[in-house]
Amino acid sequence: METETINKCSVEILLEFFEVCIHSILYIRKVYPPSIFTLKKKYNVPVHISLYPDLNFYISSVLKSIKTFLITNKLQQLSLCILDSSLKPVEKFVFNNFNINSSSITNHSDMSHLLPLEESFRAFCLKLSTSDYILKPIPDNSSFKIYVKTEGSILADMYEDPTFEAFPWIAEDKISENELHEISPLLSLHTPK
Q1: Average pLDDT, integer, range 79-108
Q2: Residue 67 backbone dihedrals phi, psi, to 5 degrees
Q3: pTM (2 decimals)?
Q4: What sequence ranges are listed for the domain HORMA (predicted)?
């Protein structure tokens, strides 16, 4: 299998995983009413996916935008931050350390590496579904933002790329790493080499 094809396939798999996680977090943490979600099966476990078109558009637009960053290995971190009504962060779910390394995939021409990956995704989704029991309830009228951390030089490239015209990004002022005082790791996800 060609390296570029493998890389794009890996990116699509990762984007789908992010999508499932974002929807699941929004449901589990009750950022939106449960009535806007439907139960679907992903990675052989039940997950909640939004039916709300505006929310789905936002999530898919974010993920479509970061696809380029993943392909070029310039994405450093993806965060879903839950905000209270005054837009102060109360929780942050962070995804990082996802270097798309095609050399570890090329040894698996039969795509046998996908089964352990699916098992890891399933374990993560199951762990995520129980996170509500260990986390404090979020305040009423909470909202969320998705933050993307990339290499500093990428912003200029984004302004020149027509892909980002439909869903523009802005540079955020540096967010203090200590803004949230508690950290609760849910699960480290290790992918097969």
Answers
A1: 78
A2: -55, -45
A3: 0.80
A4: 8-193
**How many domains, in total, are found in the chain?**
1
CATH code, domain with 11? 3.30.900.10
Instruction: Tell me if 70 sits within 8 A of 15, measured CB to CB.
Output: yes
pLDDT, tens digit, for every residue of 26-63?
999 999 999 999 999 999 999 999 999 999 999 998 89
Q: Residue 193: pLDDT band by 50, 70, 90 thresholds? A: very low
Domain that holds residue 65: 3-164
In the chain the first and final C-alpha atoms are separated, in Å, by 17
With contact defined as beta carbons under 8 Å apart, do 121 and 17 qualify?
yes
Alpha-carbon torsion 166, 22, 47, 140, what sign?
A: negative
In whole angstroms, give the CA distance from residue 118 to residue 55.
Answer: 26
In a domain, 82, yes or no: yes
The answer to whether residue 42 is domain-embedded is: yes
pLDDT, tens digit, for every residue of 109-141? Answer: 556 777 888 888 999 999 999 988 899 999 999
Q: How far is CA 120 from the centre of its chain?
A: 15
Backbone angles phi, psi at 96, to 5 degrees: -150, 180
**pLDDT of amino acid 71:** 83
**Residue 187 within a domain:** no
8 Å CB contact between 30 and 139: no
Tokens 């558009």 locate to 57
Q: How many CB atoms neighbour CB 73 within 10 A?
A: 13
